[in-house]
Amino acid sequence: MRVCLYQRIPVLLFLPSLFLITESAAPGSRFPLESAQDQDVGTNSLRSYQLSSNEHFVLNIQTRNDGSKFAELVLETPLDREQQKMQEMVLTSVDGGSPERSGTALITITVLDANDNVPVFDQSVYRASLVENAPRGTLVLKLNATDLDEGPNADITYSFTLYTSEKTQYVFALNPNTGEITVKGTIDYEDMKFYEMHVEAKDKGQHPLLGQCKIVVDVTDTNDNYPEITVKSYKSTVNENIPVGTVIAIVGISDRDTGDNGKVNLSINQQVPFWYLSVYDSLPIHLMRKCLFSSSFNGRDFWGHRVNRPTF
Ligand SMILES: *[C@@H]1O[C@H](CO)[C@@H](O)[C@H](O)[C@H]1NC(C)=O
Ligand SMILES: *[C@@H]1O[C@H](CO)[C@@H](O)[C@H](O)[C@H]1NC(C)=O
């Protein structure tokens, strides 16, 4: 009975095997198992090997001329470090001796990174808005690209691509390491209402991979422009009996700001015998002779637009 118990004695000694295999290893690559060798020949030479079930490797047994056998791992399907960094398998072998001897060895495979992932921005388009005249150094936004690889293959630097105009690159600074975009020039709404930037993220792999994104920065107006008054035409002298309602000057007003910042009210702050009329807010304003005899005023300007009678 004692003999029976020890019929299969695990006395074949195997050292654990450790492999470092890059994830870019091509299917068909072979990795000899040093420990799975048997110097015995004849019936005691190793008879069979078995590999625990796994996704990537199969076992290949080679027989030398002298009849001794050795085993090698053959990669069958590609490895992917991003999916599985390490895998363990058990190699079992049984010899042909009597009694049979068997042994196991632990095979540990560490998958090394290859630069097989591109940097990816967390947004393909970033939007930000900025008030004009924002001071230099103002943080506009922070880009964020990540790379699933590791080490230098995942280490990212940011830079403007050729699609970002020189003018825009003059106004914004991009930190290559942090991805922060800050103001470094003058933001003038009247000059540019929005800026578009194109940035690439590049890893530091031996054969670097790139990811791209677009950034749109809208500029919001502040009231930074004075209204401008231009006298388009005027009579420098007028007869004293000039008829009421005669146009004596056309005045243009403008303001480069938008919205309420661009609205302009005109007033004459001296007592002069003229009044002005705004036909439309945006059209020239007509300086007209003060209406001394309101009854003689027909209530229309020289273009035939109805006007409000001024009060005196
Ligand atoms: C960058 O994006 C990744 C993936 O979307 C996210 O996990 C990470 O927290 C982000 N980092 C920052 C600083 O926003
Ligand atoms: C301009 O005139 C309008 C109409 O009289 C008035 O409502 C507005 O407050 C004025 N704006 C300024 C800046 O004086």
UniProtKB/TrEMBL annotation:
Keyword set, alphabetical order: Calcium, Cell adhesion, Glycoprotein, Membrane, Repeat, Signal, Transmembrane, Transmembrane helix
Mode of membrane association: Single-pass membrane protein
Task: Name the GO terms of the biological process aspect.
Answer: anatomical structure morphogenesis; homophilic cell adhesion via plasma membrane adhesion molecules
- Please give an example of a GO cellular component term from this record: plasma membrane
Q: Where is the signal peptide?
A: 1-24
The organism's place on the tree of life at top rank: Eukaryota
Subcellular location(s) per record: Membrane
What is the name of the protein in this document? Cadherin domain-containing protein
Q: Which organism is it from?
A: Hucho hucho
